[in-house]
Amino acid sequence: MIKCTHQGCGKEYDPTGSEENECQYHSGAPVFHEGLKGWSCCQKRVIDFDDFLKLPGCTYGKHTDEKPASKPVEKKEQVKEATSVKDGVEVYGAPVTHSPLESHTPVETKKQVEPEVEEEDDEAIPVAVGTTCKRRGCGVTYKDDATNRNEGPEAACQYHPGAPVFHEGSKGWSCCPRKVLEFEEFLKISGCKQGKHLFVGQKSDKEEQVDCRMDWYQTQMSVIVSIFAKNKEDTKVTFAERGFDVDIKMKDQKRYTKHFPLFHSIDVEASSFTVLTTKVEVTLKKTSGVSWASLEPNDDVKTWTTFGITGGVGTVGAKEMQYTSDSPLHLK
User: Fold this and answer.
1) What keywords sit in the KW lines (predicted)?
2) β-strand pairing of 208-209 with 254-261
């Protein structure tokens, strides 16, 4: 078995026969702009470098072991600090013993920073075969405990404890001095620290409360609320006459809970919810065909969605506009 060299793939395959569309990879070049990271061949952009490495490929084909053609991340700039050439790759600058931020920090404002305690694997947690080590720059995949844990032949993890640094065309890690120009060469920079692999981390009983994006719209007889959440394990929605509660449990001990007070009353028995792949869709059955000025109670309403062809611009649904006796339209 050999490792595929396509960007974004990296899977091992049998060189005697790779099937068409078996490899999922990125055909473009890495793009780093204003803190966002992605690939020129697809639209998705992320902020975290680890998330960038996890972006699924947008191109399908056969696996290969050919060296990828050089694709610059950005326009190369001449770096005056070039000092030597090692293994055919230019190395820039002298070894750095402190971060760039520290050089601009007045002495009197420096504070002693306690060393960060790095996460270790809870070896009681089972690991799926093929799981990749989470430490940056390692790339080893799990085979079994005898191989990748304890004193196994591949138990040592060579990784970068720091963060990636891209500056004026050069690329490297904050934890070591080596800098290169090509992105492919950056990925090959050997880790500067040795330790144990991190395949699963520690099991945590503490839940993390997260916030989810939501949106809503209405018809004459219903209000539809969409709560966008992935990796759902359990979803509960309970209804009351003037509100509803949402409880979504997600993977990695994440949870979204919220109470929604409502602008108007609903039919509890006729209301329902549907769990979809990327969202939870809640359908609130109105007790009458009136327009809701907002989803939740709001004393500062400046716009009002109406229904019916006689209702003016922006109306939808029924033939006649309907509104409650205490609405701003009625009070005018």
Assistant:
1) Metal-binding, Repeat, Zinc
2) parallel
DSSP code for 34: T
Residues 91-140 have pLDDT tens digits of 444 444 444 444 444 444 444 545 556 778 777 788 888 888 888 888 88
Predicted structure pTM score: 0.39
Do 261 and 153 sit in the same domain of this protein? no
Helices then strands, counting H and E runs in the chain, come out as 5, 22
Task: Indicate whether 68 belongs to any domain.
Answer: no
Closest CA to 193 of 115, 151, 138: 138
Q: Which of 141, 169, 196 is the last residue of a domain?
A: 196
Asked if residue 114 belongs to a domain, the reply is no
Is 174 in the same domain as 277? no
CA distances from 287 to 19, 71, 311, 319, 326 (A): 58, 60, 21, 18, 16
**Are the C-beta atoms of 290 and 271 separated by less than 8 Å?**
no
3 state SS of 282: strand
Amino acid code (one letter) for 296: E
Tell me how far apart the 2 most distant CA atoms of the chain are, in Å. Answer: 81
CA–CA gap between residue 306 and residue 316 (Å, rounded) = 7
Range of the domain at 133: 82-99+123-196
